[in-house]
Amino acid sequence: MKILITGGCGFIGPNLIKKLTGLRKDVRLRIVDNLSEGDKKNLLGICELQEMPHGIKELNWGKKPQLFVEDIRDPGFAQQVCLGCDAIVHLAAATGVIPSIENPLEDFYSNALGTLNYLEAGRLNKSRRFTLASSGAPLGEQTPPIHEEMVARPLSPYGASKLSGEAYCHAYYSSFNLETVCLRFGNVYGPGSMHKGSVVSKFIRNIMTGEPLTIYGDGSQTRDFIYIDDLVNSIVLSLEQNGIGGQVFQIATFREHTVREVAELLNDLSLKYLGKKVDIHFEDERKGEISRNYSDISKAKKILGFEPKWSLRQGLETTFEWFLAKR
Description:
By secondary structure, the protein is an alpha/beta fold. The protein contains 10 helices and 14 strands.
């Protein structure tokens, strides 16, 4: 099976590559990443990487995973690198609500246009499956638990660009029979997230340096935190299951946790492992951020066969231990 992964040098990508290469010896992988957020060092110890030169004209699928340091906004390269590809896992994206508010055009070019480039490349190269990494942001402020039948009302340019990607996925399934699958990820965390801007990673980094944990608002805002191993399993299922083209799935845990709860759990781990706690600091809430958010994953369980296994406490401790080992 020949699989192309965009954004493969970030946080999710290396964990997915480790899973795929462990599952099948005959898997062939190509990775596209401009390294603006990711780092090829994240793949050290996971696979023996073949770094491909710029401007190469003749491409052959090698036994080693191939890394192309290129931009997803280049449509010509997308069509070239997807030649012979069975499946595309599109992880690459501009992430974050606040950056999208600060620069909505940059967010659009990466998330909407970048997704369209690889959908078109998949169509032209007759790929079978296209998995899009999406999020709950397209739905905006809703009464949770959120689910796939809700009308999308994005609050931020990030949510709008992700919704655009989902819409193009469905259009390419309906018009061209490219089997697209959109996975709306909860707040993912876990080992390998050292440089990720998520709340769990930022809090752990602050604890390691003795800085306070900053919460925007009163800390009552909620999220559905999903451990990386569970999330990676959902991507593998999206590549394996039949009859799921054109579908959208909420990928989370069906559990609601406050940001303050996460801060306190991590502070407990700080006391356990480091013998001290850090202060928790509150600032004004930020525009564009959703107050409550967790997902009903009934559809993913029934159709995709998805079943999360990690509890928040177990996942946070494993992540904390990983950060300690890397400190």
